[in-house]
Amino acid sequence: MRRIMFTYFTSDPSSKALCSPMLLSTFSHFSLFHMAANMYVLWSFSSSIVSLLGCEQFIAVYLSAGVISTFVSYVAKMATGRFEPSLGASGAIMTVLAAVCTKMPEAKLAIIFLPMFTFTAGSALKAIIAFDTAGLALGWRLFDHAAHLGGALFGMWYVTYGHELIWKNREPLVKAWHEMRTKNTGKGGGGRSN
């Protein structure tokens, strides 16, 4: 079982980098339509998520979300015996959507082809989670429901707790790094002078 899992996570059994396929799957799509739909959702929610998190934190959360949602997808596929590739792009997009919907539950949303019907972001998030939970439980293969759920749950967790636990606690490390670089640059360690 361990050998199967290892080869499932990596394309090269001798490779020790288990996260690189999960990170690269963050940029993978099933079809041109899949990519267009994901990019539309990302574009629609990008200004909100960047204003909530800032550029650096958004990139860190997005890449982490791709790895986490792909991992959740792999675990679900291993549990059900379905050995198919996982596409982490949708999971990362779901993280963005869930984070914005969690922080702004009263925001009004609409579907692109049905702009006359509006609903709250909180209702949309509940519906998406219910749909993906049903899809996972019933074995639907329309979407990667496990990746969607993993991404949505990570997005909800991150904006509720993760920002305080992870991002704010990195400040002492960043300050120490900048002080070390400034000190080395001041002593001539940053460059050569003749």
From TrEMBL:
Report TM segments: 21-43, 49-75, 111-131
**InterPro entries with a match to the protein in the record:** Peptidase_S54_rhomboid_dom, Rhomboid-like_sf, Rhomboid_protease_S54
**Name of the coding gene:** Parl
Principal localisation = mitochondrion
Pfam families linked to this entry: Rhomboid (PF01694)
User: A GO molecular-function term, please?
Assistant: serine-type endopeptidase activity
Stored SUPFAM superfamilies: Rhomboid-like
> Which organism was this protein described from?
Baryphthengus martii
Q: Does the keyword Methyltransferase apply?
A: no
- Alphabetically list the UniProt keywords: Hydrolase, Membrane, Mitochondrion, Mitochondrion inner membrane, Transit peptide, Transmembrane, Transmembrane helix
GO CC terms = mitochondrial inner membrane
Name of this protein: rhomboid protease
Which family does the record claim for this protein? Answer: Belongs to the peptidase S54 family.
Domain of life per record: Eukaryota
Per the record, what are the reactions this protein catalyses?
Answer: Cleaves type-1 transmembrane domains using a catalytic dyad composed of serine and histidine that are contributed by different transmembrane domains
The question of whether Mitochondrion is a record keyword is answered with yes
Q: Which terms under GO biological process does the entry name?
A: signal peptide processing
The Peptidase S54 rhomboid domain covers: 22-162
List the PANTHER family. PRESENILIN-ASSOCIATED RHOMBOID-LIKE PROTEIN, MITOCHONDRIAL (PTHR43731:SF14), RHOMBOID PROTEASE (PTHR43731)
EC annotation from Swiss-Prot or TrEMBL: 3.4.21.105
Q: How does it sit in the membrane?
A: Multi-pass membrane protein
**Cell location:** Mitochondrion inner membrane
